[in-house]
Batch of 2 targets.
Target 1
Amino acid sequence: MKTRVLTITDPEEDIKKIQEAADLIRAGEAVAFPTETVYGLGANALEAEAVRKIFEAKGRPGDNPLIVHIYDVNQWKDLVEDIPKQALLLAEAFWPGPLSIILKKSSLIPEEVTAGLDTVGVRMPAHPAALKLLALAGVPVAAPSANRSGKPSPTTAGHVLEDLNGRIPMILDGGSSCVGVESTVLDCTGEVPLILRPGGVTPEMLREKAGQVRIHSSVRRPLFEDEKAISPGMKYVHYAPNAPVVLIRGSVYSFADYVNRKALELEREGKKAGILATEQSLRKCRYGIRLSLGDGNNPSEIAGNLFACLREFDSLGVDLILAEAVEEKGIGLAVMNRIVKAAGFHVIDLES
Ligand code: AMP
Ligand code: MG
């Protein structure tokens, strides 16, 4: 299959191209499109056969459910059994935006979408091209990130092409995704909302609107062997570049000292170390291939750069990636969750 890439500069001016993508979705195909978080691979959420194409193209395990994307809150009512007051309040506050709300699903949603769960995650993306596509498609669109399963999520159309060229008919190229990490997955089926995956809408922002909000313990640590994955995505390898990743916690000085020694050691063995750190810390690092996450005082910039850096290490062919820990505040919690998963929870704590 040939993958066409259509550039969208302005959703109004490029409406014909978006219509082509919408027509493909209406015809039961899966197409990649930009959202503010990462690029998505979308198909008609009401058609099991269309949804299967997403799993096939990505090589995604069948028990990892998809998030359904809508452009109008009215679409939500048909997809879920009931919308509790609090969920509606959160949607009103954060949609369109990077918040996926999990509620009990209605019978309209095929089990392929939810991987057999009785709940469904729904969100309204805040990207003008995505909203236009959803409106023209006229159906709810199931869309996970548009990467091969296990790889870092794509934040540009080029990343999607790297992973899915020849596997999908079309990619809409709307430039770089501005948030850079995926949506917050919030389970609203219980009394107190529970964050299953941290993302663009931070715990602090949610608490300001909803009061109490809990964070699932697996956000920071691996699942125990006998522990049930309430969000099936929790149990899979994620965001992983080709080289192993090690997360390093410490001060700027202890981090630089450690990576300088380690990178030099690898260099002597004829291997390449990749160093992933903030601009400030990188100034103190002298060896290895150094990629900047951005300004250490700007967590949004760091979130925006993270996945592109992990992919760049793949093309640079490094043997080991040493990543600096960032503060788990605000969107920093989502950044750390992605790095810790990319590292398979391999963490070195220099201060302990
Ligand atoms: P992706 O679309 O690739 O960003 O992945 C979607 C994430 O949302 C996965 O980690 C899923 O496990 C999670 N998710 C989607 N639907 C549900 C659901 N109904 N219950 C719990 N987690 C979900
Ligand atoms: Mg994903």
Target 2
Amino acid sequence: MTLTTENPAALAYAATASQAYRSALSVIESVEPRIADATRQELADQRSSLKLIASENYASPAVLLTMGTWLSDKYAEGTIGHRFYAACQNIDTVEAIAAEHARELFGAEYAYVQPHSGIDANLVAFWAILAHRVELPELAELGVKGINDLTEEQWETLRHKFGHQRALGMSLDAGGHLTHGFRPNISGKMFHQRSYGTDPATQLLDYDLLRATAKEFKPLVLIAGYSAYPRRVNFARMREIADEVGATLLVDMAHFAGLVAGKVFTGEEDPVPYADLVTTTTHKSLRGPRGGLVLATQEYADSVDRGCPMVLGGPMGHVMAAKAVALAEARTPEFQTYAQAVADNAKALADGFLRRGARLVTGGTDNHLVLLDVSAFGLTGRQAESALLDAGIVTNRNAVPSDPNGAWYTSGVRLGTPALTTRGFGADEFDRVAELAVSVLKQTTPVTASNGQPGKAKYALADGVADDTRAACAELLADFPLYPGLQL
Ligand code: DSN
């Protein structure tokens, strides 16, 4: 249940949760008071800031409380019913319930709920694709009975085959993610990577160019999904392209899983009917515990099941339990209302920026995020992010297509609606957020660096802007308390 002060059941839930947290914090305090203090402070900080980081949210007390139990104490490598440890019956139960909710919520043939994060979920998927798709010589052909009998030379042949496959993913500056084959991530070392971008004029995904690139590059895996692209993707078209070149279609829906779960993205915008594998985190728009999961067709199920111990450490029973609780919440009509509000609010935020003359990548949004091009304010993303933070508005800097400032300083700021929608913000509040953000950015100036070059990091806010905006944020937040009724 989402906390709200509007009905007695919600108030009783808040009172019980308050009691649980007070007790837990006093137990923690008796051992390491500084951890209890930091935990209380984190709640105070989150309550008092305007959280617009597109990948963050607030999980329910039920989800959070589920993580604090002895399910954490059990080792359970392997899969349901096939563990490398004894006495895993309760972890089997927990994992089976979480997987059942995931399958039924998303209409997937198979669900694997062990990944500890989105990176882990993608690693499981990449391994599953390599294991399933790369044709290796039969052991008998190599003249050996088992893998332990392979010579070093034969291993080298197998490694060479695994290590020379191709992946095609969205470019980082168009909104793709590091784990989609980019060098700072292991995926960029596992695969030869090429990326597809967006149309320079519209900044929208260019499916024709993507098709041409795929035909030339012939990837083993076509990766769809993004972390900073403010538009919906047509997965039927992605499927067609994958089929034309014989690629496995992997969709990373980490950012928009909540919109799929909440039936905002349906038909050709729902990746599950079209992809071979779908990965996600569970803590973004899906509003669950920090973690990941993989959905797959039956064809890939056995390979996905090898995730642990192939690329994952022991499954976390307490987090799989919390995933089950969050997925149960996501199956309610209340969650569908929430998901629709996330998308409606993003539009209100975009309109608020556009009406005030700001420039948005692609000119708007139809998902949960907007990407503000702050070069129009004469700022880098780094300067804008810092100035907004000083004023109590928490965002993150992000590259824009063909960004002249690269991935560190950037020219953009990404803002998302999932967290503040959980607090109850609607269109009017998001319009006010746009007003406050534009006002801060207009009153921020870059400061010349010590070498006399235009500064990319330093900035100055006009007098009083930070304090005034913080006060305005507090006023805005006052009507939308985080975890209403929850008192420590
Ligand atoms: N860190 C997530 C995000 O902010 O989009 C993705 O890894």
